[in-house]
Amino acid sequence: MKTAVEIASGVAGKKFRAADVLEERLKLINEQDAEIGAFLEVFAETARVQAAAVDAKIAAGGKPGRLAGVPVAIKDNMLYAGHRMTCASKILEGYIAPYTATAVENLIREDAVIIGRTNMDEFAMGSSTENSAFRKTRNPVNTSCVPGGSSGGSAAAVAAGFCPIALGSDTGGSIRQPAAFCGVYGLKPTYGAVSRYGLAAFASSLDQIGPFAADAADLELAFSALSSRDPKDSTSVAFPPAKPWDGIGGVRIGLPKEFFSGEGMDRETLALTRAAAVKLEKLGARLTEVTLPNAKYAVPAYYIAASSEASSNLGRFDGIRYGFSAAGANLKEGYQKTRGLGFGPEVKRRIMLGTYSLSAGYYDAYYLKAQKIRTLIKRDFEAAFEKADFIISPTTPSPAFKFGEKVSDPIAMYLSDIFTIPCNLAGLCGVSAPAGFTAGGLPVGVQFLGRPFSEPSLFGLLKVLENV
């Protein structure tokens, strides 16, 4: 299968048509997605219209966009005008988006072809895509295993070859963790680098849209199209001038001692992560130990802060303004039935946790304390980046697990994101890159974290590792 770079170059150069690229991917989806379950809906007809428009533009001598003819999937929590968007929840079943998310608009402006919406954990709350109200998504590498979450459908779509690029959202690891499980690249951009306008909010101070891709060049291409200052999102910023990538020589790679202790970790995952660090060292990088002493508090701090924001953000789903509505004898009963029937168990769990954390008498003990921990974690990273240019760690404590293995143990599920959550709390950029396979054939991801807005150098580092 052609990469996104190859597709864009070939379509722009009239070597082949965007329409033919699309039909090739649609055929593959039609043949294989019944087993994988990456998509909740394929936008075949509107995608054909888009592909034809790209071909017509190029035939007429128009300047092609940087994603000319590239099929791209979007996670089911991003608005795309005239198309359904459900956040994989019954409470939004049948909802039609009235406008298009800025990130999706940016792709379309660059002549990408939006091929469909992918499955996810309901409202992006989960680490396995088992919380979807509609279907199960299987890991294309091993269909008995989960693809990770919450952006599991997007990761699976890229891993299966259904599209070279897919969008996900990352609140605590929801791009990087499924990227690791499925053996692809996944980028969580710096907070503010990509507009969140048109993304269904989970935890607004943590959410960030980012791409999945099968190689580093495609990941970089996708990010270049996504990143923009958006006046519709007050948290988005113009990407500052970046320091040019000068090569691997002398680059300092920090190894947090807390992430390499081996406690609670799969040994093969740890070994492959160390091997990636050694490869970079042999190419001229310098390895140095760093410490993130407050990282051990990241998971509890995250689940208090994120759930608190979710309890507020999800208050808008009341059955009155849009989405599913259950009849009740009075307004209160209508609210209760709508939310009781419309939300799944994990969403209810987090709403209740967040509401409790924000309630009178508990705000200071929980939410305020979580915010203080968040500040300490940010300071830890600032200190670490004085000694290192990038930080390396495993993306996940283990490879992909079997379906049902952690559903009954929320804490075990939450710990799947133990290495990814600190990045979101600190607003950094982070990426998961393929690091190899276990003896059982499951992919392992290695995570690289960089200072805010250091994505250009991060892509340079990925390309070096990719070519070793």
Describe the structure.
β10 (429-437) and β11 (443-450) form a beta hairpin. The radius of gyration is 21 Å and the shape is globular. The chain has a domain at 4-226: Amidase signature (AS) enzymes (Alpha-Beta Complex). The protein is built from 15 helices and eleven strands. It has 468 residues and is an alpha/beta fold. The longest helix has 24 residues, at 364-387. α2 (18-36) runs antiparallel to α3 and α9 crosses α12 (364-387). It has an eleven-stranded mixed sheet, sandwiched between helices. The chain has helices spanning 4-12, 18-36, 44-59, 102-109, 152-159, 176-182, 216-226, 267-282, 298-313, 331-342, 345-358, 364-387, 410-414, 421-426, 455-466, and strands spanning 39-42, 71-75, 113-118, 165-169, 185-188, 209-213, 252-256, 286-290, 390-394, 429-437, 443-450.
How would you describe this structure in keywords?
alpha/beta, Amidase signature (AS) enzymes, 15 helices, 11 strands, 13% strand
Give a quick precis of the structure.
With 468 residues, this protein is of the alpha/beta class.
